[in-house]
């Protein structure tokens, strides 16, 4: 009788442990990916640190394979749970046109109004903190709203557009000394240092290589005054590719 009791107790403990593991591994998010007309669903769970982890599946492996085999792949968030992948720029532009949100083809666009710090904030921190000054205003200074106040720097060379076209080109990121102004990059070009971004009023594209090359992610915030944010670029929903990997940024309207 004692042996039977011990056996039953063991079974119950095993069952409880399994139930606990099952409850800890509840699917908390599902992302639908699409590529060349095919749909893929990837599920995520939260680990003990409350960070998302991929539930490995045929679809998750297929998406990772697509990413590795398309050196110019474009990630486009349609909404919170749907990400479209495009192999070429032409396919992205066709999608935007058919969606009624085409990119402007005007040659007389005021680039200086596009490349302003009001339209784009880039951060070294994963939670939209530690802003990186980058945009010179009409007075030749840069303004970054940091904790409710503004800090100003002066860059030695390069336009705002040139500065974002190559985040590794130190000559465009060298600042003229203005005393101890916190956050001025000096000669510390922010290549591969961005962990979160915020976009307003523009179509922003973030590339893994300088001069608008390599894979990219896009964020469309052209309509209305809404802000489009990428906090935690290391998130697995983007397959963990973008934290500290951005080398150029292009803004359009």
Q: What's a concise summary of this model?
A:
The chain has 253 residues and is α+β, with helices and mostly antiparallel strands.
Please tell me about this protein's structure.
The chain has 253 residues and is α+β, with helices and mostly antiparallel strands. The chain is 23% helix and 31% strand. It contains six helices and 14 strands. The chain has helices at residues 2-24, 58-68, 89-98, 111-114, 160-165, 170-173, and strands at 27-35, 38-46, 52-54, 74-79, 82-86, 120-123, 142-146, 149-155, 175-176, 196-200, 203-209, 213-220, 227-230, 248-252. The strands form three sheets. It has an eight-stranded mixed sheet. Strand 11 and strand 12 form a beta hairpin. It is globular, with a radius of gyration of 23 Å. Residues 2-23, 138-143 and 146-150 have low confidence and may be disordered.
**Helical run tally:** 6
Main β-sheet, spatial strand arrangement:
3-2-1-5-4-12-11-14
User: What's the overall geometry?
Assistant: globular
Indicate the proportion of strand residues: 25-35%
Number of strands: 14
| Amount of helix | 10-25%
Q: How many angstroms separate the termini? A: 78 Å
How many whole angstroms does the radius of gyration measure?
Answer: 23 Å
Query: How are helices and strands ordered from N to C?
Result: HEEEHEEHHEEEHHEEEEEE
């Amino acid at each position: 009788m004692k042996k039977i009791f011990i056996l039953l107790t063991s079974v119950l403990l095993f069952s409880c442990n399994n139930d606990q593991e099952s409850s800890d591994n509840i699917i908390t998010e599902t992302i639908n990916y699409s590529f060349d007309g095919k749909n893929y669903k990837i599920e995520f769970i939260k680990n003990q640190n409350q960070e998302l982890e991929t539930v490995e599946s045929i679809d998750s492996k297929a998406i990772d394979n697509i990413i590795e085999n398309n050196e110019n792949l474009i990630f486009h968030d349609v909404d919170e749970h749907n990400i479209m992948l495009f192999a070429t720029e032409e396919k992205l532009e066709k999608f935007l046109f058919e969606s009624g949100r085409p990119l402007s083809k005007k040659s007389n666009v005021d680039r200086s109004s596009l490349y302003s710090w009001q339209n784009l904030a880039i951060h070294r921190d994963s939670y939209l903190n530690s802003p990186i000054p980058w945009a010179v205003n009409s007075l030749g200074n840069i303004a970054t709203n940091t904790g409710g106040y503004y800090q100003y720097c002066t860059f030695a060379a390069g336009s705002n557009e040139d500065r974002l076209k190559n985040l590794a080109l130190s000559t465009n990121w060298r600042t003229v000394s203005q005393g101890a102004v916190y956050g001025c990059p000096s000669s510390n070009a922010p290549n591969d240092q961005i962990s979160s971004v915020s976009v307003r009023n523009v179509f922003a594209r973030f590339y893994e290589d300088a001069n608008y090359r390599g894979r990219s992610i896009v964020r469309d915030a052209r309509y209305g005054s809404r802000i489009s944010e990428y906090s935690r670029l290391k998130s697995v929903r983007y397959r963990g590719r973008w934290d500290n990997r951005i080398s150029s940024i292009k803004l359009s309207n």
